[in-house]
Known about the structure:
Layout: H1 3-32, E1 36-39, H2 47-57, E2 59-65, E3 69-80, E4 86-93, E5 96-97, E6 101-102, E7 107-111, H3 120-145, E8 148-151, H4 154-168, E9 186-189, H5 196-214, H6 229-261, E10 266-269, H7 273-287
Antiparallel strand pairs: 1-10, 2-3, 2-7, 3-4, 4-5, 4-6, 8-9
Amino acid sequence: MSNTNVRTMKGYAKRLNDITFNDYFTRLMMIARSVFKWENLPNGINEKWIEKFLFFEGSCVFYKDKTKGFMVAKCTQNGINAYDEPAKITPVGVNYIGKELQNGDECVLIDNNDLRAPTYSTLELYAYRLAELTRTIDTNVNQQKTPYIVLCNEKQKLTMKKILEQVNDNEIAVYGDKTLDIDSIKVLKTDAPVVFPSLQIQKHAIWNEAMTFLGVNNANQDKKERLVTDEVSANDEQIEASAEIFLKSREEACTRINDLFKLNISVQRRKDVKTAIDELKEGEEDES
């Protein structure tokens, strides 16, 4: 194989690594941003922007602009009040910087969780692990197609490459040149072990762990035996606890917003996450 082909294959492998990671991260992000349903939001405020800001920033600010009405935006936080919370908030956006607001009196900070930690950093780790397992599975599957090292002279190299290409293309029959000298060819078995079934199980376990982190119900389908009642209850408790971490902060923000601005905003966990993901996709397509 020429140096050019080697560089091309390495570049393509890296691109597959990047594509696989981005695909898993996008899937996890869409689920994360669709877990909660906001109701009775003022006109002009879409829940997808709230969840986007919380996902990437860890917090956002709800306030009322004198000319634009109610708004939600990313923000900078300054000072500390008696409760160790930001005392002053400045809304920021694309080509926009609002005036500095007094937290609790002129605006309300919506937090992703008690630590104001964004969701994306954790999901990046899960996406990385899922991508690594997937690409390892791809490699192991490919090794089963060509589990040999072929030793031949330079004259027969091109012929052997064509034969291996036919194998790689899943041809039902492999054709060789009539001048092919079989006796001069040596084949060494690499004996690549078949490990992708266990890797697939591990990948499902990582995915389920990510769903538990997001508070999304997931079923362990990789165990051959049925889950006993205690196992099901323990898994449900973990899911509920994880969901509560995110829900509690959002509910507290709703209470503060309603008290300050006399609104009736509420938030709850969305039962049909799949429908929410489809709606999010449609909304992003409309914007493009």
